[in-house]
Amino acid sequence: MQTVSKRQETHEFVWFDSQGKKRSFPFLCYQPREFQAETKLPLLIFLHGAGERGTDLELVKKHGPPKLIDQGEDFPFVVISPQCPMDQWWAMKENINGVAQLTEHIQSEYSVDLERTYLTGMSMGGYGTWAAAASYPDLFAAIIPICGGADLAIAADLKGMPTWAFHGRDDDIVPLIRSEEIVDEVSKIGGDARLTIYDNVQHDSWSVTYANRDIYDWLLSHKIRNRRKA
Q1: What is the DSSP letter of 137?
Q2: Any residues with CB less than 8 A from the CB of 224 and at least 6 apart, and which?
Q3: Are 148 and 125 in contact, with CB atoms under 8 Å apart?
Q4: Which has the closest alpha carbon to 100: 143, 152, 135?
Q5: Looking at the predicted structure, is the pLDDT value of residue 1 above 50?
Q6: CB–CB of 48/188 below 8 Å?
Q7: Residue ranges covered by each domain of the chain
Q8: What superfamily in CATH does domain 3-147+201-226 come from?
Q9: 90 touches 99 (CB < 8 A)
Q10: pTM of the predicted protein model
Q11: DSSP assignment string, 14-50
Q12: Of residues 228 and 224, which shows the higher confidence score?
């Protein structure tokens, strides 16, 4: 069943995890006004923060692209914004697998460009962005993790992934070092990773980032076929 909430459709994606358990993500779907069935548009997957978990999909519109879309902003992407179940984390293995399966589902059901599929997330979603990109490096052309972090052991899996990370210098929720260490580790092995640090934003490094059109131009400048090989 599909409902329409302003400019973003509400859907549910169901899959079975590695234990055969049925699981699901509700998600928001935005399609640009110029969308035509014969036109293959870029795809952007957005992973929200911990405060937006649960079953109320309206919470996902609190920050990031879903918020801007709801306020009337136009994006040159199909934007998919799933919701993480309460008391779970995006970086959990099963949820990372679910995000990948959702992405592949959208690629098969919508007229999107497989070469231009991107991933971004904030806070808990920043951690999920790092983890999903490392687990499925052939699925995404580039990523933007915001105020997140990652296990340094996954750096080698991210070597070929164009990455632009963002973090607040005085973040008191997720310390800046969490982004610095993984960006440094990927860069050390020759990866394409960079970090922008903001002053005076504390944990909220996402508002200024998602309002910056340059990040979307940067994403669109990358295609999977043009990525450096790890």
Answers
A1: T
A2: 114, 115, 116, 117, 138, 140, 141
A3: yes
A4: 135
A5: no
A6: no
A7: 3-147+201-226
A8: Alpha/Beta hydrolase fold, catalytic domain (3.40.50.1820)
A9: yes
A10: 0.94
A11: EEE-TTS-EEEEEEEEE--TT--TT--EEEEEEE--G
A12: 224
